[in-house]
């Protein structure tokens, strides 16, 4: 089982930056991919970005390409989401989650951190 704890959310003005962190703990972490999701009130949850733990391959939602960067520090068992050029529409609860590599379902979730972007 994998445990995930997010941090780094907050209030920022449009155009600003935030870095979210996801501390990952558990066994055999090299077998897990980690993703960042977000959900705004009244909207469906969406995948923002994810990264394979061992291979470093990444993918992004079209809405954040060129603005957000996902990375991981294996020595610290932490996955980061650097968010630049933030827009009010990025306002949401942000959650990190894990899944076994080569599976499709994210099934372990953190408690989330709120990001609010003011115009």
Give your account of this protein's structure.
By secondary structure, the protein is mainly β. It is 0% helix and 55% strand. The chain has no helices and eleven strands. Strands 2, 4, 5, 6, 9, 10 and 11 form a seven-stranded mixed β-sheet that branches. The termini are far apart.
**C-alpha termini separation:** 40 Å
Low-confidence stretches: none
Q: How many beta-strand runs?
A: 11
Quaternary status of these chains?
single chain
**Outline type:** globular
Integer average pLDDT: 94
Helix fraction, binned, reads under 10%
What is the strand content? over 45%
| Structural class by SSE content | mainly beta
Instruction: Work out the helix count.
Output: 0
Helix-strand pattern, N to C? Answer: EEEEEEEEEEE
Query: Over the alpha carbons, how many angstroms does the gyration radius reach?
Result: 13 Å
Largest sheet: 7 strands, mixed
Helix and strand arrangement:
Blueprint: E1 2-7, E2 10-13, E3 18-26, E4 32-39, E5 46-52, E6 58-60, E7 68-73, E8 78-83, E9 92-100, E10 108-109, E11 113-118
Name a few traits of the molecule.
55% strand; four-stranded antiparallel sheet; mainly beta; seven-stranded mixed sheet; 119 residues
């Amino acid at each position: 089982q994998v445990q995930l704890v997010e941090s780094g959310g907050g209030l920022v003005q449009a155009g600003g930056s935030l870095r979210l962190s996801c501390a990952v703990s558990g066994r055999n972490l090299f077998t897990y991919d980690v993703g960042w999701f977000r959900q705004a009130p009244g909207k469906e949850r969406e995948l923002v970005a994810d990264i394979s733990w061992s291979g470093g391959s990444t993918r992004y939602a079209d809405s954040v390409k060129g603005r957000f960067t996902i990375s991981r520090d294996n020595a610290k068992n932490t996955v980061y989401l650097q968010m630049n050029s933030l827009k009010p529409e990025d306002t949401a609860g942000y959650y990190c989650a894990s899944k076994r590599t080569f599976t499709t379902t994210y099934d372990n979730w953190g408690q989330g951190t709120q990001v609010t972007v003011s115009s």
